[in-house]
Amino acid sequence: MASSTLVSRRGTRGRKARRRDTGQGRQRTLISPAQLGRPRGRAVYWIVFALVALGFTLVFLGPLYWMVTGGLKTTQEVVQSPPTAFPSSIHTENYSQAWNVMDLAQLLLNTLYYAFGALAFQLVLDVAAAYSLSRLRPVFGRAILGMMLATLMIPATVLVVPQYLTVLDVPIFERNLLNSPWAIWLPSVTNAFNIFLLKRFFDSIPGELLDAAAMDGASPLCTLRSIVLPISRPILGVVSIFAVVGVWKDFLWPMLTLPDPGKQTLNVGIYSLSNGVPQNVLIAALTIASVPTLLVFLLFQRNIMSGLTAGGLKG
């Protein structure tokens, strides 16, 4: 009886091995390896792939191309219909005129000041919140994290009115924060998505490292500073990029809280000065405002992907 059972198990294993060898156990795809091996199937595959890649490239890069070339055209050429694909004559002075007329240098400095201030507050407070929820395990920690994540389901525009009333007259302190950088920094501190990313990474750190530090007499704050933060550089880079880009691209909230033209951000300042500026100069200003964020993505796209997919430690 035992020998027959052993023979049947060996037969089952043999059939599974043959199924893997013949490719029957492999995951199905749109095009089988046999069809891809034929000349006709290979040609169809590459034609479809090229068309899809070209279509997505035009969809994503088309507006950028129109914006860059629009800043090189004359005003008549920008507004004419149908539009021209290439400028009839290149006018690079539109970019220098946009830089000087719209005072983009001051607007750029204001935006950098607000962005890096928000980054500093987020790194300090969001890291502390994520570390406490991940490792210190406070009472009702899961409920607090659940309520934080529930705020991601609320549209940002719904919170504009209560946030504005709060900034207009801060409870307890009774201060008006309009035209103040605190109006930009304070609402951006409690970022539930960044806290979730940081907590997820902290959960993947082996507990043996933290236990060894505790046995050596290190406090939780010392463990965070000397062990957790050096390991968490990838996810800290991702959170930093999200914090800077979030302030950089925001428009509605800075427009409401920064009415002073000398303290406005880049997006709000360009919008405020757009009425008396030719359209080609305005497009040139928009191109200049888009360059920093594009450079950040192109330079740090590998760090962004590695930080988002980081789920543990090797070794």
UniProtKB/TrEMBL annotation:
Pfam families associated with the record: BPD_transp_1
Renumbered residue ranges of the record's region Disordered: 1-29
Domain of life: Bacteria
Keyword Membrane found: yes
SUPFAM superfamilies on file: MetI-like (SSF161098)
Keywords: Cell membrane, Membrane, Transmembrane, Transmembrane helix, Transport
InterPro entries tied to this protein: MetI-like (IPR000515), MetI-like_sf (IPR035906)
Membrane-topology annotation of the record: Multi-pass membrane protein
Biased composition (Basic residues): 10-19
Gene3D superfamilies: MetI-like
Residue stretches making up the ABC transmembrane type-1 domain: 108-300
Compartments reported by the entry: Cell membrane
Bilayer-crossing regions: 43-66, 112-131, 143-162, 182-202, 223-248, 281-300
Family: Belongs to the binding-protein-dependent transport system permease family.
Designated name of the protein: Carbohydrate ABC transporter permease
Lineage: Bacteria, Bacillati, Actinomycetota, Actinomycetes, Kitasatosporales
